[in-house]
Amino acid sequence: MAKMWAGRTDGAVNSLADDFNSSISFDKKMFREDILGSIAHASMLGECGILLKEEADKIIIGLDGILTDIINGTLEISSTAEDIHMFIEEVLTSRIGDLGKKLHTARSRNDQVALDLRLYLKNNCKVVKELLFSLLNVICIKAEENKQTILPGYTHLQRAQPITFAHHLLAYAEMFKRDVKRLDNAVDIMDYSPLGSCALSGTTYNTDRDYVALKLGFKGITANSIDGVSDRDFCVEILSCFAIIMMHLSRFSEEIILWSSWEFRFVELSDEFTTGSSIMPQKKNSDMAELIRGKTGRVYGNLMAILTTLKGLPLAYNKDMQEDKEGIFDALETVINCLSVFTPMLKGMKVLKDNMYKAAQKGFINATDLADYLTKKGVPFRTAYKTVGEIVGKCVKENKVLEELTLKDYKKAHELFEQDLFTEIDLKTCIEKRISKGGTGYTSVENQIKGLKEFLQNG
Ligand code: ARG
C-alpha cells in the first residue's frame, strides 16, 4: 500500500526497511486506545469549529464502526501496516472517503502514540492493582489462620528468633501494599494528556486540549509540548513498579521453594501448582514458584532496556522511542501472569505447623530471651549476652537445648537465674513478650491484620 506520508519521498521503502520500521505487530494491542483517542480528537475538532460538526460526527461514526469490527473479529488488523495509527486512519479513509484524511488535523503520530500508551498503561495498571489486592486478601486469610503458628525467624538463613507465621506473611503484605501505592503514584504522575502537543511545538489551530483530556478521563494536560512527545518517564516508572513487584514475588517464591524442600518441610504446595520429574518418581517440584523467580530477570531487563534507550535521546521524538512498547508490554504480561498464578498457589499451600514448631525448638532461637531475662534483673546486656553465649556453647557440646539444662547448670553460669527462667524461654512466652509495635507479639500481629483489612477495604 502507498505510504500515507509519501510526498517528500515517493514512499517506496525497501521491503526490509519497511518490515524493520513497522511496529504493528506489537502496537496493535493499543487499537482501542488509538480509536478512543481519535474519537475524542475528532469531537474536539468539531466543537472548536476546526471541522464542521457533521464532518466530525461522520468521522466518529466511522471510528466507532472500526472499533466494533475489530472487537467482533470482522476487521483483521493488517500485519503489513506501518503501525496501528496508520492502520486505523487508512481503514477510516477507505470507509468514509477523503473526509477520513481530515482526522489528523492538528495532531501528529508523536502525540498520538504518547497518548495511546498512557491510556493503555492506565487501564492495565488497574488490572495489576486488582491482582495485588487479591494477593493481599489471600495473605490476610492465611495470616489469620496462622496467628499461633510458631516457626524460627531467620537472619543469614540461620535460625534467629521465634516468630509467628502470620507475622512473616504480614511482612509480605507490607511490601505488596507499598507496590499498590507505588503503582497509584506512577499512574497519578502520568495522568496528563499529551494530545495536542502535535509533532513537538503545538499547533496553529485553536484547539481545546483540556476538552480532549477530560473526555478521555485524564486529570489534566501536559504543560510543555516538547515534553509531551518526548517523555517516557512514565514507562520507566511503571516498569520500575513492575520490577519491584517481581522482586517481592521472587523473594516470596524463593522462600516457598525452600520451605517445600525435605530439608524444611514447612509447607506443601497443592498438586495443582507443582510438577513431577520425567525420571525421578519421587519428585514434586515447585516449578511455578521457580518460574516466577526466573521471570523476574526479564522484567528487570525490560527496565534496563528502556532506561538505556532513553539515556542519549535528544528532544523531541526519535524513532528509538518505538522501542518503549515491547518491553513494557512484556513486563505487564509477565507481572499479570505471575500474580495470577502466585495467588492461587499461595491459597492452596498447606502450612505444616508441627514441622515449623519442631524447627523452632532447635537452634537456640530463645537465646536472646534468656539474655533479656538477665538484663531485666540488672545485668548489663553485653555481660548477659556473653553468659548466654557460653551456656549455648555448653549445650552444643553436650548436644542439648536450653530447656534441657537444670537450674543448677544455670546457677553455675549466673547466680541471678531462677526457676522462672524456664517460662521465660518457652517459645510461646517469647512471642507473647514481643510487645513492641510492629513486632511478632500477638497484639501487634492483630493490629497488622486490622491495618491490612482497612487497606483492603479502602482500596
Ligand atoms: N510507531 C511509532 C512509535 O511507536 C509511532 C510514532 C511515529 N512517529 C514518527 N514521527 N515517525 O513510536
Layout of helices and strands:
Layout lengths: L14 H7 L2 H4 L3 H17 L5 H20 L11 H13 L12 H37 L4 E6 L2 E7 H25 L2 E2 L15 H7 L4 E2 L3 H6 L2 H28 L6 E2 L18 H25 L12 H24 L2 E2 L1 H9 L5 H10 L4 H18 L8 H7 L7 H4 L2 H6 L9 H17 L1
Parallel strand pairs: 3-4
Antiparallel strand pairs: 1-2, 5-6
Helix pairs in contact: 3-4, 3-6, 3-8, 4-5, 6-7, 6-12, 6-19, 7-10, 7-19, 10-11, 10-12, 11-12, 14-15
Q: How does this structure look, described?
A:
The longest helix is centred in the first third of the chain and has 37 residues, at 109-145. A two-stranded antiparallel ribbon has the order 1-2. The protein has a two-stranded parallel sheet with strand order 3-4. Strands 5-6 form a two-stranded antiparallel ribbon. It is elongated and about 100 Å long. It has 459 residues and is mainly α. It contains 19 helices and six strands. It has three domains: 17-105, Fumarase/aspartase (N-terminal domain) (Fumarase C, Chain B, domain 1); 115-149 and 169-200 and 222-354, Fumarase/aspartase (Central domain) (Fumarase C, Chain A, domain 2); 358-453, Ribonucleotide Reductase Protein R1, domain 1 (Orthogonal Bundle), CATH 1.10.40.30. The chain has helices at 15-21, 24-27, 31-47, 53-72, 84-96, 109-145, 165-189, 209-215, 225-230, 233-260, 287-311, 324-347, 353-361, 367-376, 381-398, 407-413, 421-424, 427-432, 442-458; strands spanning 150-155, 158-164, 192-193, 220-221, 267-268, 350-351. Arginine is lined by residues 23, 27, 83, 109-110, 113, 317, 319, 321-322.
